Amino acid sequence: xxxxxxxxxxxxxxxxxxxxxxxxxxxxxxxxxxxxxxxxxxxxxxxxxxxxxxxxxxxxxxxxxxxxxxxxxx
Length: 74
What we know:
- The chain has one domain.
- It contains 3 helices and 2 strands, in the order αααββ.
- It has helices at about 1-5, 15-35, 45-60; strands at about 65, 70.
- Strands 1-2 form a two-stranded antiparallel sheet.
- A hairpin with a 2-residue loop joins strand 1 (about 65) and strand 2 (about 70).
- The longest helix is centred in the first third of the chain and has 20 residues, at about 15-35.
- It starts with a helix and ends with a strand.
């Protein structure tokens, strides 16, 4: 979540930027909601949360983290 909030504004592609920010905000909401009703113990939500994390990591991998600057590597 920290990487999402730190690097979302540096991604040059607007579509990927929106995906990273949306999933990062969703992770924050899921974390807050887990105090009331734990979605982590419901088996049907675990793959969804995992896919959201995985997609964010793929977007991060598409760019080199060079200090605070992101550059596309492919």
